[in-house]
Amino acid sequence: MSLVDAKIIYKDLELKKLKPIYFFFGDEPFLLNQIPERFKIAVLDENTFDFNYSLFYAADSDADVIKDTVETLPVMSQFRLVILKNAHELKDSEWADLHDLFTKPVESTVFLIMADKIDKRKKGMKFLLDQAVCSEFKKPYDNEIPQWINYLSQNYSLKFSQDATHRLHRLVGNNLSELNNQIEKIKNYVGDRTVVDLTDVNSVVSNSREESVFDFTKAIGKKDRISALEQLVQLIDQGQNEIGIVSLLARHMRILLTVRSGLDQGIGGAKLASVAQVPAYFIEGYCDQARHWPVRKIEEALVILCDTDKALKSSPISSHIWLENMVLKSCSL
């Protein structure tokens, strides 16, 4: 599998350098959802749009119908555009039905295939990865979020102050769809103003659940058992998924492991932030917490989290007990 940067593909689209098969996949829905519009603009003519555009969802479509549509010649246009979403839901037999489209692509059709995830155990998926122009969209790392906030805010003619960027990141995290939604709300709030400050973010963005998650992981990081238990109760009351709580904490502890290892090697400041893949304005907070943990203890905590995850999946009825034990054991290391 050879992946191509999406920026290169988009540039080729603008130049009308079209390929017969494209495959986009990944766990970042905000970026994936923008792809179809880009292809519609590049491939189709508005006068013949209805004749040359077809959209299919894997779970609701017949593979033979998809194949016939791809093989149909365009009407009064150079190209036809066929989009297949959720390709990861195709069955093995359906992959087999589409196989000829990959071995002998239809040059007059741009066949755009999209999936949330890939399973290389499926022969059809593996073959597609070898034959199509492929690009993957991963969720951005924490240290990339300030750049994304800057990029998304430009679409609304806004500029965020550093404090406002910091606050929005803390409240929303690395969910690009939610970041975009919140920036749009902020645009409506500030009106004709173009600079967004900390007060604007605090006035618009709800922080109850996000703050609870942040405070929970921070309490564990500082080994503050009482505060961690209090925040855990709030998270559960807010409807936070139990397995999600463990996942969030595991991610936090892996960051602390990297930070602690860096501190032990004499690394600090912006360099340590880069190694840990977190924004520089967060690094001191992580350092303060990491100093409570020798590397060996963080590794033991990760084992506890792994055991808790398995327990929750096998015995969800006792979830609150497993989570409380997780907090007590982690804070006692």
Q: Could you name the CATH homologous superfamily of the largest domain?
A: P-loop containing nucleotide triphosphate hydrolases
Number of domains: 3
**Topology as H/E string?**
HEHHHEHEHEHEHEHHEHHHHHHHH
Spatial order of strands in the largest sheet: 2-3-4-1-5
CATH topology of the largest domain: Rossmann fold
The helix content is 55-70%
| SSE-based structural type | alpha/beta
The largest β sheet comes out as: 5 strands, parallel
CATH class categorisation of the largest domain: Alpha Beta
Secondary structure tally: strands: 7
Beta content: 5-15%
How would you describe the overall organization of this protein?
The model has no long low-confidence stretch (mean pLDDT 90). Strand 2, helix 5 and strand 3 form a beta-alpha-beta unit. The chain is globular and about 70 Å long. The chain has helices spanning 6-14, 29-32, 35-43, 49-52, 63-71, 92-103, 123-131, 145-154, 162-172, 176-190, 198-204, 208-221, 225-237, 242-264, 269-276, 283-290, 295-314, 319-331; strands spanning 21-26, 53-57, 80-85, 109-115, 133-137, 159-160, 195-196. Strands 2-3-4-1-5 form a five-stranded parallel sheet, sandwiched between helices. The chain has a two-stranded parallel sheet with strand order 6-7. With 333 residues, the protein is an alpha/beta fold. The protein contains 18 helices and seven strands. 59% of the residues lie in helices and 10% in strands. The longest helix has 23 residues, at 242-264. It has three domains: 6-137, P-loop containing nucleotide triphosphate hydrolases (Rossmann fold), CATH 3.40.50.300; 142-204, Orthogonal Bundle (Helicase, Ruva Protein, domain 3), CATH 1.10.8; 208-331, Up-down Bundle (Zinc Finger, Delta Prime, domain 3), CATH 1.20.272. Helix 9 (162-172) runs parallel beside helix 11 (198-204), helix 14 packs across helix 16 and helix 17 (295-314) packs antiparallel against helix 18 (319-331).
